[in-house]
Amino acid sequence: MAENMDACETVQTWSASFYHSASRKWLYGVLTLTPSAVYFQSDKTEGAADYQIRVEFLSIKTIRKAMSSFLFASITLLIEENQTLWFSSLANRNVTYLILQHFYHAFLCSSHGKSQEDTQDLPVSQPQNKTKLGTDLLRSVYDSQKTLETAAVSLVSQGQQLSSVACVVEDIHEDLSVAERIASGLTSWLGRWKMPKAQKAEELIFVKQNDIADVTDVDVLCSQVMRDKITPRKECVLRVGKEGVTILDLKQKILNYLKWSDVSRIRVISPWEVLLTRFLIGEPDLSFNVICVAMPAVLVKFESFAKSKMEYMSPPAESSVQRATAPSSVPNDSPSPWSSMQSSPDRDSPKHVPTENDVPQIQARAQKDVVSDAEAAELSATLENLKSLALDISTEQDSQLDMIDRVTQSVDRADYRQKELDKKMNKLLK
Q1: pLDDT tens-digit profile of 57-78?
Q2: 8-state DSSP, 190
């Protein structure tokens, strides 16, 4: 549940209806998508109370298409405790589903380090409560993390060596196959045997750093906007380079290509949505509406290649305001997406400067607390990293043990073939 929604957070809004299971009625209102949640606000009607619901991506299990009453196209959100939320009366159910899935999957891929980022967002100017026990625990955890990282690096190096050994053993088997064919031909005296074709040495191609194209590929949702119609939105790949902008399908087939000289305007609607427009005399205007989670990084590329053609619907500085807080179990204080292009001057200003009178109180609280809240949050984030690192090491270790078994069996098989080949050659020499 939330009371206010910051305008800079809104990615898309749709007119929709929500099924309220308690009253068994469909409530009509507005469905809003933010980078980390889905929000529904019912319309204000006489005699009915307003209804608001906020669903964080972290609590969503699946997003599916469904049919309500076997007739109306809907979208369902399966959240914790196997509760299903129904949304219907959408103008285009398929486009809404694509956009929800795009931002939901991107959030799942980037939310693992969220707890650590929230810990780092604490103001630097505020004094941190440090305790002796907390300091000792943090030192021990960081030492363990450093040891695990060193072990992981050594394990990766060992895996590379095992891969090299496996390649050498495969070469030995190929040489043994050639030797066995030659020995079989000599044994039959007049039998035909063929030497393997000599491999022609190919010239090496040296690639310099300047030869690598400076391009950026991102997954986007794109629709073509023309004067009389708008094509359905579909999943594409947006490639931004020094020459221009290329729109490809998921099979890397070029759909449209615009040189920077052909691009007339890049209108930034929001930190996640832009409108690329091409104006030509005597030809209809051509525009592409692009939505992407990684749009802030793409906007940096646009700024470097076509800064004079950029138009912002709202200045980045105005969009850097802090987000409105909402009563939710998931923290919602991450920085604005505009921060990758332009930082707000208010972010660096300390909220509170402690005085000399505050220091004794802080020290007294630190002595009373066994472990401070900041230290507990840092310990939790570091232990999560340790757990992930340990799981990766365990997976890599299992993979290397399997590779060692395969290499051992291959070496035993090569040794047996070598012995059999020695027996044939000894018979021929007698």
Answers
A1: 888 888 988 887 666 788 989 8
A2: S
225, part of any domain: yes
pLDDT digits (tens, 9 = 90+) for 151-193: 888 888 888 888 888 888 888 888 888 888 877 777 665 444 4
CA-to-CA separations, 290 to 140, 220, 221, in angstroms, rounded: 48, 6, 6
**CA dist 366 → 127, 134, 140, 352 (Å):** 11, 10, 20, 19
Q: Kindly state whether residue 48 falls inside one of the protein's structural domains.
A: yes
127/368 Cα distance (integer angstroms):
16
- The number of beta carbons lying within 10 Å of the beta carbon of residue 21 is 11
Partners of 222 in the beta sheet?
234, 290
Q: Label residue 47 left, alpha or beta by phi (over 0 means left) and psi (-120 to 50 means alpha).
A: left
Predicted confidence at residue 133, as pLDDT, reads 77
Domain limits at 272?
A: 210-318
CB-based burial label for 335 (10 Å; 0-12, 13-18, 19+): middle
Name the helix (H) or strand (E) containing 135. Answer: helix 132-187
Q: Which helix (H) or strand (E) holds 155?
A: helix 132-187
Q: How far is CA 169 from CA 104, 397, 400, 405, in A?
A: 46, 21, 16, 13
What φ, ψ does residue 345 adopt, rounded to 5°?
-65, -20
In a domain, 264, yes or no: yes
Show which of 299, 318, 337 is a domain's final residue: 318
Identify the CA nearest to 92 among candidates 223, 1, 184, 272.
223
d(CA 375, CA 369): 11
Determine the pLDDT at residue 290. Answer: 92
Instruction: Say if residues 114 and 385 touch (Cβ distance below 8 Å).
Output: no
User: 203-233: per-residue pLDDT in tens?
Assistant: 777 767 666 777 888 899 998 887 777 888 8
In this structure, the answer to whether residues 189 and 262 fall within a common structural domain is: no
Q: Phi first, then psi: give them for residue 177, nearest 5 degrees.
A: -65, -40
Q: Give the end of a domain, one of 111, 142, 169.
A: 111
